[in-house]
Specification:
It is a single chain. This protein is α/β, with parallel strands linked by helices and about 500 residues long. The chain contains 15 helices and 19 strands. Helix 3 crosses helix 4 (about 115-125). The two termini are about 30 Å apart. It binds ligand BES, manganese (II) ion and zinc ion.
Length: about 500
């Protein structure tokens, strides 16, 4: 991430200058100064390029004079309609346009401090790269940007608005790193070890291994793990930020962390199986969320718990037909070893309730291929037994651009899980596959306020979007940070 600073408006003598411009608005402030310094080259260039400032429009003017290497005009659309997500998208476009410069200035002096901060957030988010394993990239292809100066009228206000966003962007980057790592590197033990780094932000981190889980009766999670040479882990992260006198029940976020999902004995086809390295995205999101909340010192008590396992076929793997006993005591007939995420969540959710008596629980999981059929890649599936919690999550999603669509629950779906020999089967057949998966999880929440986000369609993107390079999206970090900020602090 480049270093982002807010500065008083003053024309740079070199480098790139980015002009975020509203639709049909005359050049003003720093943009006007730049136009004058270049003898009108900017207004002439924009005119010739038919640049109108429409949303998504962008034009580059090379070497317009006054020492500038280039001027990039980015359309904001109608000034009165500009919102945080629009400013972020302009920031994303900015990041792309300045990647090859060492320094750039953004003339945000016409924007309110909060929108300038959102634009800076867009620059930060879009500048993400996962290049740990590239050793042969040509120098000229590597991004060069080191410092972005955002020129604003009120630097103090913009800085204050950006500080929490910077912490959230750091959380997003952590999630993207975890989700992008290959599965031979990011094993359950490696992922758990990386959680320890959150201690420096003030997060209490506790790691449980198979011995402790056996004692806790985690038969469902351990059944998934038993086919792998990699030991499972459960990581409990606590951020206790609520001020004294305002302590109540903690909020709880729970993540599915299958570091690789082969399907187990119900093995998946070879084509595309490499995608199953990101079957730990729910856990990755919870870890990044905890980093974001702690990084901005959120005034709330929050626990994040992730169940980390690898789902492998082997001589020790569980079989279709096995019956396992979950920590709650409920027995499960494992019909399909590829429906493993719900088995992991069942035990972690039960533990969360017994240990923390949370105010609510939100779980995130790349749980079903069926949710991609239902909603594509535009919305996560949202399932909840609590209308208030659900509508708060939906609203936080809209505000951050990480949208979710509420799906139904109901007894009729629940019946699809009836087993002949145990309390339930782990699959409910093809009809409503995402719903029966959510019903399964609901059997472990003891009627407490709970929401489940099926992020199988949103955790990974095969193409660049406004503020996210293709790959791991960290979907949910910003949404849930917002949920906490809006309703559960102070
Ligand atoms: N991790 C998968 C779901 C998934 C699919 C995530 C595609 C991301 C992209 C999950 O463990 C799984 O295998 N689900 C099965 C459930 C079925 C066996 C009931 C599925 O969706 O096919
Ligand atoms: Mn699976
Ligand atoms: Zn899975």
């Amino acid at each position: 991430m480049p270093d982002i600073a807010f500065v008083k408006p003053a024309l740079p003598r070199s480098g790139a200058l980015v002009l975020p411009l509203a639709e049909e608005a005359p050049l003003a402030g720093l943009a006007k100064q730049a136009d004058e310094a270049t003898g009108g080259a900017i207004s002439r260039g924009l005119e010739a390029a038919k640049f109108k400032g429409r949303k998504g429009q962008a034009t580059t003017l090379w070497a317009p004079g006054a020492g500038l290497s280039k001027v990039v005009a980015i359309g904001l659309g109608k000034a009165a309609e500009l919102m945080a997500t629009g400013a972020e998208a302009a920031g994303g476009a900015t990041a792309g346009a300045i990647a090859q410069e060492r320094e750039a200035m953004v003339a945000a002096d016409g924007l309110a401090p909060a929108l300038a901060a959102s634009l800076a957030m867009g620059v930060a988010l879009k500048s993400y790269r996962f290049d740990r394993y590239r050793t042969m990239e040509k120098e000229e292809d590597k991004p060069k940007i080191e410092r972005v100066a955002v020129a604003v009228a009120d630097t103090a206000k913009a800085k204050a608005a950006f500080a929490p966003l910077q912490a959230v962007a750091d959380g997003v980057f952590l999630t993207r790193d975890l989700v992008s790592e290959p599965p031979n590197v990011l094993t359950p033990t490696d992922c758990a070890d990386r959680c320890r780094a959150l201690a420096k932000l003030g997060v209490e981190v506790e790691i449980l291994g198979p011995k402790e889980m056996k004692k806790l009766g985690f038969g469902a999670l351990l059944g998934v793990a038993q086919g792998s040479a990699q030991e499972p882990r459960m990581v409990v992260m606590k951020w206790m930020g609520a001020p004294k006198g305002k302590k109540g029940k903690p909020l709880a976020f729970i993540g599915k962390g299958v570091t690789f999902d082969t399907g187990g004995i119900s093995i998946k086809p070879a084509g595309g199986m490499e995608d199953m390295k990101w079957d730990m995205a729910g856990a990755g999101t919870v870890i990044g969320l905890m980093a974001a909340l702690a990084g901005r010192k959120a005034k709330a008590d929050v626990v994040g718990i992730v169940g980390l396992v690898e789902n492998m076929p082997s001589g020790t793997a569980q079989r279709p037909g096995d019956v396992v006993t979950s920590a709650s005591g409920q027995t499960i007939e494992v019909i399909n070893t590829d429906a493993e995420g719900r088995l992991v969540l069942a035990d972690v959710i039960h533990y969360c309730i017994e240990k923390f008596d949370p105010r609510f629980m939100v779980d995130l999981a790349t749980l079903t291929g069926a949710i991609i059929i239902a909603l594509g890649h535009e919305h996560a599936g949202l399932f909840s037994n609590d209308d208030t919690l659900a509508s708060r999550i939906e609203a936080a999603g809209r505000a951050t651009g990480e949208t979710a669509w509420r799906m139904p629950l109901g007894d009729a779906y629940d019946k699809q899980m009836k087993s002949d020999i145990a309390d339930m089967k782990n699959v409910g057949g093809r009809p409503g596959g995402s719903i029966t998966a959510a019903q399964f999880i609901q059997r472990f929440v003891q009627g407490r306020p709970w929401a489940h986000l099926d992020i199988a369609g949103t955790a990974w993107s095969s193409k660049d979007t406004a503020t996210t390079p293709k790959g791991a999206t960290a979907y949910g970090v910003r949404m849930l940070d917002r949920l906490v900020a809006e309703h559960y602090e102070g």
